Amino acid sequence: MRSSALRLSRQQLLFGARRYASTSANTTAAAEKASASAAKAKESAAVAAAKAMEILGKSGESFAKLAAKTGGRTGKVLKQVQTAIPPTIYYGKVAIELAKLVFRGQRMTPPDLATFQSTYRSLLDPKTLNTFACSAIESVRTMNKKDLAFLGVLSAEILGFFTVGEIIGRRKLVGYRGVSNTHH
Fold first, then answer.
1. What is the mean pLDDT of the chain?
2. Is the model's pLDDT at 150 over the cut of 90?
């Protein structure tokens, strides 16, 4: 289905202009003029994008120089931020591509902006959060022993899976490498 749709759209791009074009000289000249103006617009857009990337690169370099010159706590924070930017961008792109694969695989469509905004507005509303917290506390208070035991086992399972994931992610059993506070 997908390959036949691609083939059909490719054929329409290649042969669609020939099928509906007239043979008059005016139409041919207009088509040539339109393609020339489109090429000029594409070229000017590429030049503008290159200039923007150059300016952004220079500002990034100046930030790096500023971070290198700044010392103390501020310098440390700036260096940490600077070193965290590339992995953040990389993993952001990976997450976007993964979301695209999931959406295509499940034949899903993303929600429209109004639905997205209304959902997150209601979730982040302090009144809603307060109501949710109060109802959660009240439901725990009214649970019987069987439900509390189930909740305890479920919490232990979640903690266990999290711990195993941390061990796998660190590739070792105990702790992260950190700064030791011991002086020799």
1. 78
2. yes
